[in-house]
Automatic annotation (TrEMBL):
Residues 80-186 form the Tetracyclin repressor-like C-terminal domain. It comes from the Bacteria. This is DNA-binding transcriptional regulator, AcrR family. Keywords: DNA-binding, Transcription, Transcription regulation. The keyword Calcium does not apply.
């Protein structure tokens, strides 16, 4: 990796840290230059503009999410895979960054940009979540096809419900953290899936 690539990775990592704490909308060239001990020119030379930088941070965050959540959650058993995915999704930035006051930057971006004017950043954040929802739908369908979930289960609808449950949990945990909330969430996921299981 060249020096320029290492610097870009450093900027993106600090962008992930900052957006996990304060949100993507507040990430600026100025605060990243301070965090990385670089000049503003040193930061912006790696991106076309602020929007391009924010999209790059979302791309980098998705790579880390894949590394820390999607890949380790994989299991030949689709129902186990599904449970492990939601378990690992909880607090993945806390584990990765070893910082308590952080939460999923991808969900933060979705919430932050949902009512903002159309922009490349908003479209990218929405597309990320649409792809993740599609991934969940395929995983639920695998569980149906393997007869672990009842035939006739609407995979996309159940995936949407689980996704919404996770979204609400993530926001609620940030607003009112409780050490028991991960356990409550996992109980809720099991309860939600129970009527669909044979």
């Amino acid at each position: 990796m060249s020096k320029g690539e290492r610097t870009r990775q450093q900027i993106l990592h600090q962008g992930l840290v900052f957006s996990s704490q304060f949100g993507l909308a507040d990430v600026t060239i100025g605060n990243l230059s301070s965090l990385c001990d670089l000049s503003r020119t040193g930061v912006i030379s790696h991106f076309k503009n602020k929007e391009d930088m924010q999209i790059a941070i979302l791309e980098y965050s998705e790579l880390r999410f894949t590394e820390w959540v999607l890949k380790p959650a994989r299991d030949p058993d689709p129902l186990t895979h599904l449970h492990q995915l939601f378990t690992l999704w909880q607090g993945w930035t806390v584990r990765m960054l070893e910082q308590e006051q952080t939460s999923c930057p991808l969900i933060k971006a979705l919430v932050e940009f949902q009512h903002r004017p159309d922009s490349a950043v908003k479209r990218f954040a929405l597309d990320q979540q649409a792809r993740l929802l599609s991934y969940l739908g395929k995983l639920v369908q695998r569980a149906v096809d393997s007869h672990q979930l009842a035939p006739g289960t609407h995979a996309d609808a159940l995936a949407y419900q689980l996704f919404a449950l996770n979204l609400g949990h993530t926001i609620a945990q940030s607003a009112n953290p409780d050490p028991n909330s991960p356990q409550w969430f996992e109980q809720r996921v099991r309860a939600w899936l129970s009527p669909y299981q044979h």
